[in-house]
């Protein structure tokens, strides 16, 4: 088979994978998925956590010369960025690919559809308690570059005291779920481990989505095996959170604006972070205090 034929077969294969399996393996968490995610999060001491969020750069070797300035950021070579959310089992629940490498994680978040369903009042709603306080928005664990939104929880850069140090240790450990997912993606699929050699941006996009679909298929196939984590898939997950599914609804601009502001509320972020600090210390603090 000639090189050009092999490349064309690859493109057709990836487009077919996305078309046939995209709805299933690139879906947002449904009610059942959310129940399982929240049950695992509660066991870890982070009620309401929906996963961890981060970005990965894929080098674009054959980026057209006219676009190289736009796509060349701190890596000093053209890259395309994948923003993703991964859960404890490394399933990727959100994939936003295609923005140039000159953008940082905050710029990408501003253009990302990650909060689109929440803003429109659709998808799955959650309600849970942390430290006896009620919250109605799930959240993601992130690194320090992300803004202090009610839906994003970072570690503390210079923690003071045992409680904050313990929180930072736990947050940084569980935030690595998405980094592990990126590592597994690149280890399993060499096509994204090495620089992309396609001329069209759309070809890179369909390849990345196909790889994520195949990755999620593998995660599903390995669920409950020795390759999976400690969570018991065969037991019905239990969570104290209230979960409801919301379909498309008519909404006014004022309602949309209220939800938009609630997602990005700094006060709610600070309150939730402090409640998580206290909750984690109550749940696991005795182990930390007794450790050498």
From TrEMBL:
PANTHER family: NUCLEASE, OS12G0169200 PROTEIN
Protein name: DDE Tnp4 domain-containing protein
